[in-house]
Amino acid sequence: MNWLAICEESALPVFGGIAAWVEGKAVAIFNLGEQGIFAMDNTDPATGVGVLSRGLICDLQGDIFVASPLHKQHYSLTNGQCIEDESLSVELYRIKCEQGKVLINTAIVGGINDE
User: Fold this and answer.
1) Residue 31 and residue 55 in contact, taking contact as beta carbons nearer than 8 Å
2) Residue 19's domain is classified under what CATH number?
3) Which residues pair with 63 in a beta bridge?
4) Which N-terminal residues, if any, form the signal peptide (predicted)?
5) pLDDT tens-digit profile of 55-72?
6) What is the pTM of this model?
7) Cβ distance 5 to 102 under 8 Å?
């Protein structure tokens, strides 16, 4: 796998999200402390606006979701699926921390999160 360093681990707010420009695409990165870090496309598929990194993180039905700040659709951080509308989903990326750096694999994955 080809891993790309995108920032220092200390730059990630705990229990929050940031957006990073990765190979021409905005990626939302979430640091959930002991639960790990997660990465998904930053574009809300319901609106086409890049806002998911600013969404609220929540636990619903035993899964971790980010709620879009626009219309509040919930997208799973583990599989990308929208809970309110099965036709909507977000692309996920493998992400991990090593030696104080956040690394992302730009290959799109379906529900896989390497830590």
Assistant:
1) no
2) 2.102.10.10
3) 60
4) none
5) 999 998 889 999 999 998
6) 0.88
7) yes
